[in-house]
Amino acid sequence: MNELKRLCVLCFGLVLTGCVHGLGRPLPYESWWLGFGGPSYMEVWIETADAVDIQGHVFRRAMSGIASVQTPPNFKGKPEGWPANPGGGKGKNVHGADLPRLIYVRWQSLAEPQTYEAYIEIPEATRQQMLSSEQVYCRGLGKWITDYRNTLTIGLAPGGVTKTWIMGVCLSAIEVARVQGAVVKIGPFLGRSGGQYALPLEPESKAYIEKFGIPYGSW
Question: PROSITE patterns in the record, alphabetically (predicted)?
Fold first, then answer.
């Protein structure tokens, strides 16, 4: 999908959601986190991740670059499936945003290689959970704290599969959505790189995939 068409789709989302707020109060935290990760060895480069909040504001390139992917030596990683608590991933705080309504992400699955894009809608029930505080004992801090699930983490897997969770610093992850992305037919960087992808695979990733292949269907 080209840049103009993508913006048209985002703007259509604004028409549907820009006047819907209904919360009537500021967020109880300064920002929420948008992070990305992938299964072990299945390395990912994010061309862009754009966020639309419930006020209709668009935050272009809220995240880009390398996603969080583990590449342990000696084939010790387990790329099949997703962990129950995937962590925050690599990302950024989205400052100045209200709660998220839509995330658009276009990424390079370097393990294949292939380029995908996906539109991930954040349900209203999830936004309410992001506003709800919980008292939780935080082992890392050694004390009870008031925590919010203001971390939005998106897993990106080969085959264009995405899975989204919300979580807190000390609160467990809740699954939000599983969305199948689409192939970007014009290739990486919207066809501007002559088919070249952002990075070569790390040696550990290359060796794992050559030996075991890509576990399609496990995500």
Answer: PROKAR_LIPOPROTEIN
